[in-house]
Amino acid sequence: MKKVLLSAALLLSSVAMFAQHEVGTLTIQPKAGLNIANVTKVDGKARVDFVGGAELEYQVDDIISLSGGLLYSRQGYKAKNIDAKWAPSYLNVPVLANVYPVEGLAVKLGVQPGFMIDKDKADEAKTFDLSIPVGLSYEYSNFVIDGRYNFGVTKVSKDISAKNSVFQITVGYKFEL
Question: CATH number of the domain at 2-176, please?
Answer without folding.
Answer: 2.40.160.20
